[in-house]
């Protein structure tokens, strides 16, 4: 039986953070190997460990998985966080793709040129309230249940709540008019595995600071 | 396990029993009715409407035209964009489908107002009583439903991984159509370069290592369809791109000869041509430029960090 999953990435949120959240929520212990220099990245590439020469890469169950979406899908399916049939999975997929789109916008903010940053932030806030939060509030309202799909905890709940924390970091007032989303956030945060992950000392990563951006610049050379 | 197909189009975010179901169970009976309610609990809350839905299910009232249609219906622009992989998958699986082409802003706004676009975006596919958006959600659902598929989670994962890679490449091409004309040469070179250095070598190696006819599990899957689609798209940009990839060339011929795919590749099929100025104009008109900004970000984000980094070779690494 293979050991713990091993995550290869920068010591930062980036595209690995959703994977960390999902593993943590599923109660799966994992190891991390941080890429700190461009030599670390080069070694992984030369070893043939990175299918498309990119990270995230996760070693799990004898595989070296790349593509964050594929990794998340595997983990979700393995730990029963992906709905009970293909129709539930389709709904979950639809929701998490929306989450991923908004998450992407927020994730890329640090890379935005300074003169465009304010406009970008405004755009993100507008999209958050008018498009994404509205859509998800409606979903919860439509069935009135504790979880987004199938009345059961799934990756959709975990990934959405992860996003809610990022939005809160951007602007805590954005969640104000979405009571059902607020309640979902509280409820999921109290799931024991998630609660543990939210505490200091867990493998959850902080927001990207200047230092982390500099490190990334050195590794990726941009 | 598949849920029974509902003949009644339903909201996309309903799939669970409302808590007041037991009351209705006493009044009506039958699996069909439960599933009708399950699939549309919002109308269940308005009892008269729920009752008329049940009557419709039981055939007492003629359903609206098109309600009983089993064919999936695709809503998108008349062009490839993000819908093309979905068309390929349906065609390869031998599933007939209908298409509605978005040509006006009004039509798009109506779809939004009717609540069919969860995030206000297309592609939209009406299938099995659901209004599904998000390309990968749709592709995953179709692949799982229509088979061809791997047999285990591990195989499915490989399929996902390969498909994601080819999708990245295809989206680069799709987006290039919206860039300024002056950048066209540069973009083509970039995409062809990426195909030749990052994507094609990977798949050539996979085929070489197992020596089988298909990418995963010695069985035709979604990954094969998408790779063929990607290969053909890059060949449109550079006819000789496969010259260094003999196994991919053979793969291309082999998959193209699968009867359903062969049919799709012939003139007159629902396969769409490469994006031209008409397509770009139609998209800009309907979406009023908002998609350009968002999808640009999406594409840029997928490869941003890695685009900007130089290829790391021993010499550049030592130059730190």
Can you tag this structure with a few keywords?
heterodimer; A: 222 residues; B: 320 residues; Glutaredoxin; 3 domains; 15 helices; 57% helix; 5% strand; globular; disordered C terminus; Glutathione S-transferase (chain B); Glutathione-S-Trfase_C-like (chain B); glutathione transferase activity (chain B); Glutathione_S-Trfase_N (chain B); transferase (chain B)
In a nutshell, what does this entry contain?
Chain A is α+β, with helices and mostly antiparallel strands. Chain A has helices at residues 17-25, 38-46, 68-78, 86-108, 114-143, 155-170, 179-189, 192-198, 210-220; strands at 6-9, 31-34, 57-60, 63-66. Chain B: GO terms for molecular function: glutathione transferase activity.
Molecular structure report:
Chain B: This is Glutathione S-transferase. The complex is a heterodimer of chains A (222) and B (320). Chain A has 222 residues and is α+β, with helices and mostly antiparallel strands. Chain A contains nine helices and four strands. Chain A has helices spanning 17-25, 38-46, 68-78, 86-108, 114-143, 155-170, 179-189, 192-198, 210-220; strands at 6-9, 31-34, 57-60, 63-66. In chain A, α4 packs antiparallel against α5 (114-143). The radius of gyration of chain A is 18 Å and the shape is globular. By secondary structure, chain B is mainly alpha-helical. Chain B folds into three domains: 11-59, no CATH class; 73-144, Glutaredoxin (3-Layer(aba) Sandwich), CATH 3.40.30.10; 152-304, Glutathione S-transferase Yfyf (Class Pi), Chain A, domain 2. Chain B has helices at 21-27, 31-39, 41-44, 47-57, 84-92, 105-113, 135-146, 153-176, 184-210, 222-237, 246-256, 259-265, 277-287, 290-308, 314-318, and strands spanning 73-76, 98-101, 124-127, 130-133. The interface between A and B is large, with 56 and 60 residues.
């Amino acid at each position: 039986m293979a050991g713990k999953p091993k995550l290869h990435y920068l010591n930062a949120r980036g595209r690995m953070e959703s994977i960390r959240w999902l593993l943590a929520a599923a109660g799966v212990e994992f190891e991390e190997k941080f890429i700190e220099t461009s030599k670390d990245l080069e070694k992984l590439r030369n070893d043939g460990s990175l299918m498309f020469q990119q990270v995230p890469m996760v070693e799990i169950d004898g595989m070296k998985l790349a593509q964050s979406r594929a990794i998340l899908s595997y983990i979700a399916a393995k730990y029963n966080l992906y709905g009970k049939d293909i129709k539930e999975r389709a709904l979950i997929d639809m929701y998490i793709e929306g989450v991923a789109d908004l998450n992407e916008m927020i994730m890329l903010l640090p890379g935005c040129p300074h003169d465009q940053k304010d406009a970008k932030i405004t755009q993100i806030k507008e999209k958050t309230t008018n498009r994404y939060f509205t859509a998800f509030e409606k979903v919860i309202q439509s069935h009135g249940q504790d979880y987004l799909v199938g009345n059961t905890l799934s990756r959709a709940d975990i990934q959405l709540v992860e996003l809610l924390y990022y939005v809160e970091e951007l602007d805590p007032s954005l969640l104000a008019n979405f009571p059902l989303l607020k309640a979902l956030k509280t409820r999921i945060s109290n799931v024991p595995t998630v609660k543990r992950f939210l505490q200091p000392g867990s493998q959850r990563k902080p927001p990207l600071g200047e230092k982390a951006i500099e490190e990334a610049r050195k590794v990726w050379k941009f | 396990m598949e849920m029974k197909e509902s003949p009644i189009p339903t909201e996309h975010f309903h799939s669970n029993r409302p808590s007041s179901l037991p009351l209705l169970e006493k009044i009506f009976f039958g699996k069909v009715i439960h599933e009708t309610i399950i699939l549309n609990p919002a109308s269940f809350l308005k009892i008269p409407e729920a009752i008329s839905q049940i009557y419709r299910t039981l055939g007492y009232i003629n359903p609206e035209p098109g309600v009983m249609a089993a064919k999936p219906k695709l809503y998108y622009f008349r062009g490839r964009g993000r819908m093309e992989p979905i068309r390929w998958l349906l065609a390869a699986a031998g599933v007939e489908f209908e298409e509605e082409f978005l040509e006006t802003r009004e039509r798009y706004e109506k779809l939004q107002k009717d609540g069919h676009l969860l995030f206000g975006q297309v592609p939209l596919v009406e299938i099995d009583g659901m209004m599904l958006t998000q390309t990968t959600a749709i592709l995953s659902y179709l692949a799982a439903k229509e088979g061809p598929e791997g047999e285990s989670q591990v195989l499915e994962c490989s399929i996902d991984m390969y498909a994601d890679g080819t999708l990245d490449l295809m989206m680069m091409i799709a987006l290039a159509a919206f860039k300024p004309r002056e950048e066209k040469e540069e973009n083509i070179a970039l995409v062809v370069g990426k195909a030749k250095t990052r994507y094609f070598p990977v798949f050539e190696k996979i085929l070489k290592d197992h020596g089988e006819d298909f990418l995963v599990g010695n069985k035709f899957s979604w990954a094969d369809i998408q790779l063929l689609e990607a290969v053909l798209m890059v060949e449109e940009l550079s006819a000789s791109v496969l010259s260094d990839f003999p196994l991919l060339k053979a793969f291309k011929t082999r998959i193209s000869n699968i009867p359903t795919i062969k049919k799709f590749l012939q003139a007159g099929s629902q396969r769409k041509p490469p994006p031209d100025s008409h397509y770009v104009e139609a998209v800009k008109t309907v979406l009023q430029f908002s998609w350009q900004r968002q999808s640009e970000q999406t594409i840029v984000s997928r490869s941003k960090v890695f685009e900007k980094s130089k290829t790391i070779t021993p010499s550049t690494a030592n130059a730190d």
